[in-house]
Amino acid sequence: MIDIDKYFKPNLKQARKRTQADTEYKDFQLDERLQKFGVGKFYKIQTYGCQGNEADGETMGGILRDMGYQPTEDEAQADIILINTCAIRENAENRIWGELGRMKPLKRRNPDLLLGLCGCMAQEENVVNRVLEKYQHVDLIFGTHNIHLLPQYIETAHFNKERVIEVFSEEGNIVENLPKARQNPYKAWVNIMFGCDEFCTYCIVPYTRGKERSRSKEDIIEEVKELKALGYQEVTLLGQNVNAYGKDFKDQDYTFGDLLMDLDKIGIPRIRFTTSHPHDLDDKTIEAFRSCPSVMPHLHLPVQSGSNAVLKKMNRHYTRELYVDVIRKLREAKPDIALTTDIIVAFPTETEADFQMTLDLVKEIDFEGAYTFIFSKRAGTPAYSFEDNIPESEKKERLKRLIKLVNDGYLRASQKYMNQVVEVLVEGVSKQDERTLAGYSEHNKLVNFKGDKSLIGKIVKVKITQPRTWFLIGEACE
Ligand code: 5AD
Ligand code: SF4
């Protein structure tokens, strides 16, 4: 019998706590003795889930690169494999369990391989216990608050030949100066805040990512200036609730809208951000859409449901009417703004009438796209114990009806761009055809057009000639 209580394991109850404690800002520094540790060795990072996780994956890659490791896609070549997980829904977790099982033989073939589990799932008690009991081949578990300690964990696991498990359930600090192995040479993620204090009743994120805490504006501005100097064309500002940026500053009145306006002055061509919460989206942010040329005309604003009764049970802090009003103000400020959203169907107690209100709202707002999900129970959240009274078949039926409506919206939105000239940041060649270039428009529409590979990395004017549901086809204007 292994003693699973000897490790530093997560605790969801602890993770729920929010105190008045000040955020601690620290600087990452790689110990000199570990700077050559990975020379001649290879790493593979497998990231699942949101952009926040992708950004974390780039940080882990940066740390490993600074230790001397090189990236590889080949599992057989890898000396360390990190699985950077997502806990948002049960099916996201099931994929990871499958992956962990599949990787067992790799460890048999190469006993020196270090296999690590990190990301949001690592913050969950039941996950860590299950790994300890059933997945002996996992060497390393660390959480979202202690990525900066990765070098020490690797060293300990390597020399002591012992499992390393350390997951902090603290509210969360901020570590600056972290290296990054960015995956895209034209578009970069920039974290501006971490954590979430909204506590929507279905959501595990406030437990896995800690309290809302903002990076200093100076550090963010510096990072964006550096990215511009390196030739990046686009930054996406990241946070679980970006609109709460700055609300934790005790010594200054500086919020998300102020940040957008300051970043706009830097002159990087494109600024995007995600994710926004309707209840925190203020007039200054709306003003930034109107007055800042680099703020792109697309907003992803999760609504979750069109029924006030369901929104209340979700603890969303807004009504359908407030949401509609925010959209009205946004469209007044930026008439062509593209709007996308997230919707959960079959939340416990959702009636057919509630669901109908969601369908009506989708029609009323006329979204250009939406991510749609069936409610998934997450252990540790309040909604876990809400009575789930909707039959499986009904859940699937509602999702199907919603997707049909959402897809009609995608096509209608695409058709709006017919004969229009859009600007495309060219990212590469199309998956289907080597001679076709692909990139995203200001409104975040995927655009394909014929052109020379030398245009990759540039912003090109394209006239749309064939709008399709999921992408637009066009012709270069210059
Ligand atoms: N079940 C289903 N969907 C969820 N989301 C978050 N938590 C859950 C859950 N427990 C969805 C929300 C959120 C998006 C990132 O994932 O719509 O906006
Ligand atoms: Fe989860 Fe709600 Fe926070 Fe989004 S705003 S991360 S859905 S708790």
Average pLDDT score: 95
Described by strand count, sense and barrel closure, the largest sheet is: 6 strands, parallel
Using the coordinates shown, work out and report the CATH topology of the domain at 4-166: Rossmann fold
Runs in which pLDDT lies below 50 for 5 or more consecutive residues are: none
CATH architecture of the domain at 4-166: 3-Layer(aba) Sandwich
EC number: 2.8.4.3
Domain Radical SAM core: 182-412
Family: Belongs to the methylthiotransferase family. MiaB subfamily.
Binding site for [4Fe-4S] cluster 1: 50, 86, 120
Summarize the structure.
The chain is an alpha/beta fold and 478 residues long.
Attribute tags:
TRAM_dom, alpha/beta, Rossmann fold, OB fold (Dihydrolipoamide Acetyltransferase, E2P), five-stranded mixed β-barrel, binds iron/sulfur cluster, six-stranded parallel β-sheet, 478 residues, Transcription Regulator spoIIAA, binds 5'-deoxyadenosine
